[in-house]
Fold:
Amino acid sequence: MTEVSAVTASSPPTLSFIAYDAFLGDVEAVAVALEQGDWRPDFLVGIGRGGLVPAAYLSHRTNIPMLSVDHSSKVFGFADELLMKLGQQCASGQRILFVDDINDSGTTMAYLRETIVANGAVPDNVRFAVLINNSRSIAKVDYWSRMIDRATDKDWFVFPWESVAPRVSLIEEAESMPERLA
Structure:
């Protein structure tokens, strides 16, 4: 990771760019953890937008089919129909593994878990994987590559697919979520 700036009251957040090779290592770590366990999903579900790339790589690495659900668009009801269908699949015994880039606050994963269970999913048939897991998150994940503690680690992680965004956009996105950086 490359540190761009230090955090002070008047400076922008620290952007930590994750190198492509580090990303590949994170995907491999999650794949190995999944393979060493006794639970195997029928499908990976990439959480749009940040989890789509990790899910695609993990799908290729593990040979597990991938679906996607777009939660980040914030379009009312858009993901809910898909979550309802996934809940029904899990109720009939299929297992799904949601994949995202980071479990930061945990609100996305908590929402997805609550929604899919409310639509019939058996909780044991639903698991979550991330590349970076915040130990203070409100949501529990089952597989991860790296653990951080947001009480001490305030970096804004920039994954390889995000690194093409203008720096100003990355800073604006980080600053729009001050509870993660404060």
